Amino acid sequence: MKVEYCVVGMVGTNCYFAVNEETKECLVIDPGDYASALIRKLDEQNYTPIAILLTHGHFDHIMGVEELKQKYEIPVYIHEEDAQMLERPELNCGSMIGTRVSLKADHLLRDGEEQTLAGLTFRVLHTPGHTPGGACFYFPEAEVVFSGDTLFCESIGRTDLPGGSMSQLVRSVREKVFQLPDLTIVYPGHGEPTKISTEKQCNPFL
Questions:
Q1: Which residues contact 40 (CB under 8 A, 6 or more apart)?
Q2: N- or C-end of the chain: fewer Cβ atoms within 10 A?
Q3: Is pLDDT at 82 greater than 90 in this prediction?
């Protein structure tokens, strides 16, 4: 598996492509905006998107979803507890920037389930705290985890938005994310990649 990313939207959200190097099929993770630019990159690289994975339902992670979904006719996956957030602008905070983003997921995920899409297998880690249905996607064969806004390089996600909880978020990281192997690469929703071992040693919130 190869990982590529684009920084999109007004708050610099990382949109990732998890690419099966043999087939050129890929998963699009958190297409937060600039759908036309993401489509151009996908087409230039001859990647075939198979699905859209959403780590959570905030507007800055979902604004490019509809255009990508229609262009490639692919399904959208999100944890079941963020399904309402995806649909309601007052919960996904789109209303904060004067826009109404409302989407429906095709598949609702649960904690601990495994999925194989584009020939890539990942496990869903339900990590509430930033949002009620926040989730991380762990790809054991590639030793990477896409952490959304649960865990950043030497930081964690904010908890002052609807459904947020600092105690839940810290518990999610300690009990779920930090149980992954130390050498696992963390690809966060904003900022630079890091490693589990680095965050265990250096993250001031944990």
A1: none
A2: C
A3: yes
Flag whether pLDDT at 21 surpasses 90: yes
Q: What does the longest C-alpha to C-alpha distance in the chain come to?
A: 43
SS3 60: helix
Of 145, 191, 152, the C-alpha closest to 169 is 152
- How do residues 101-132 score in pLDDT, each as one tens digit? 999 999 999 999 999 999 999 999 999 999 99
Judge whether 38 and 30 are in contact, CB under 8 Å.
no
Sign of CA dihedral 190, 55, 63, 36: positive
| Record: fold of 2-202 | Metallo-beta-lactamase; Chain A (3.60.15)
Q: Which residue, among 101, 97, 105, 102, has the nearest Cα to 133 in the 3D structure?
A: 105
Domain boundaries, the chain: 2-202
d(CA 27, CA 36): 17
- What is d(CA 189, CA 177) in angstroms, rounded to the nearest whole number? 14
CA 92 to chain centre: 14
Euclidean distance between CA atoms 121 and 98, whole angstroms = 37
